Amino acid sequence: MKRALTCACAALTLAASATAQSFVYVPDNVPSSGGSNAIPFWAEWSAIQGEIRFQELYTAAQLGNMAFTIQDVAMASNYNGTFGAQLFEIRAAHSTSTMLVQTMDTNIPNPVTLFNGPTTIATSLGQWAPFGTTATFAYNGTDSLVLDIRYKGGVTTSIGGGGSQGRFVSAAINRAWAYGNFNATSWSGSDFAAGIKTRFTVTTTDLTGTGSISIGGMHSFTMSSPANPGRNVQMGTSLGAGPTPIGTRSIGLTVDSLLIASIGGNLPTVFAGYSNSLSAAGRASAQLNIPTITALIGLDLHHAFIVFDAAAPGGIADISNTYSFKVSP
Q1: CA–CA gap between residue 236 and residue 263 (Å, rounded)
Q2: pLDDT value at position 92?
Q3: Domain boundaries in the chain?
Q4: CB 3.0–4.6 Å: which of 201, 218, 263, 269 could bond 72 by disulfide?
Q5: Percent of the chain with pLDDT over 70
Q6: Which residues are 68's β-sheet partners?
Q7: Which class is domain 2-20+204-326?
Q8: What pTM was estimated for this model as a whole?
């Protein structure tokens, strides 16, 4: 695996990436069509009065039967203005069911919080309104996905429009809600054929990091590619952000001495876990133990990884985004 990547570097044919984000739409990519509905974002409506818990379920078929990492969520808007809340929370969970049940917590086993805090979301008639989530969710491509959205202190400001703050279509999209109750345990209403149009910003292969960026410190990375469980991966670190071409693709790394060192396997205490295999969930970990060398201070370090598959073009199944930081004292 290392040899394959080394040869690719030598030929300036490393694997690809910019930020490989794309969109998954349910049920379609047209936010300006469909009927209007007030639930859950018309905060002033007498039934809601600034507080609601709302759930929507998306089947694997509606999500394209593919694994991906959710980076953000947006819903179609039917008004110009803003939606705000003193406390706004979005959670996501896998579900083995294709239908919501009345006990709302049952619908979200092992939820992951994508956003929790105050918010103000700009809305435009017939456009997608992104929520600006602050965490990600690794969707497995086989289960249903449930979004649990709730807020307190909601305020809707509409400019030149009515109160139908959302859009729905007559499709088999489950949704349910509990009026006026952030902590509701049971729904007060449901509709299994008129879900709010939704757009998911996703990546299929993603690199994230956390930890020290100082000399002498350790920075930890998570390599995520949910569609490629069990496959071999190779991470690299370089001083430049490329791009370096490979066929019709390119990676955001430069072929330099640091990249060659990071993939060579001769410094495992510095570049730990760079040559790895993805777990059944499509994840692997790596660490960069930054040497205590003052000459490193101020340098920009760029990181990315490749997922290998002998049956894929060029032997490369997918490539990650480029993750970068500047070394500090």
Answers
A1: 6
A2: 98
A3: 2-20+204-326, 21-202
A4: 201
A5: 91
A6: 139
A7: mainly beta
A8: 0.71
Residue found under tokens 């990676």: 251
The token pair at 21 is: 């984000």
